[in-house]
Amino acid sequence: MEKNKIHSEDLYPHPSSLDEDIYSSLCDLSESKTIIVSTSYHREITGSMAYSFIKHSYDTQSIVASNTGVIGFIEAPGAFEVPLIAKLTIEKYKPKQILALGCIIKGDTKHNEYLSSTVINGLRNLSLEYKIPVINGILTTDTMQQAIDRAGKKYDKGRDFANSSVTMHEIINQINNE
Q: Is 111 a catalytic site residue?
């Protein structure tokens, strides 16, 4: 399947569009407390969500207070590979949380259903196994336009993932401190 370039004013830019030093620091996972595992497939879609997550994370004082503010970024080839890359990343770098980003768009077969179910179950299992939040940012849509709307400025799922990140750490900190 050939990857189509998406050009839309409705999307945020990919994190690689950030200043070279900032992007290099994102790619250095060694000090990261939050690691984004994103797909390079549908890169414009996943990159938009990652950019928004990063932007809103640094705008949110709660992220800094929860000690998850140092963000890392790594790309897997596709959605199926995200759980494995997330697992290896958790084992090596011990982050406080993972944001898994992908985009699965319905085609002419049921492939999207099997793929999304497998990936989402894998992410859930990682969260339970390692007892850290693995935020599910795998979009499952019927059309490319739905993906653009969700990943971009219209519905801004990256912002929602940043808010989920804060909420999960507040809940976990509350439970651990009781």
A: yes
C-alpha separations of 166 from 2, 74, 79, 101 in Å: 37, 21, 24, 17
Q: Which residues pair with 75 in a beta bridge?
A: 38
The 10s digit of each residue's pLDDT in 77-112 is 999 999 999 999 999 999 999 999 999 999 999 999
Selecting among 7, 14, 42, 111, the annotated active-site residue is: 111
Distances 105 to 46, 81, 102, 138, 139 between C-alpha atoms, Å = 12, 16, 10, 10, 8
Q: Where exactly are the structural domains of the chain?
A: 15-177
SS3 72: strand
CATH architecture of 15-177: 3-Layer(aba) Sandwich (3.40)
**Alpha carbon distance 75, 41 (integer Å):** 9
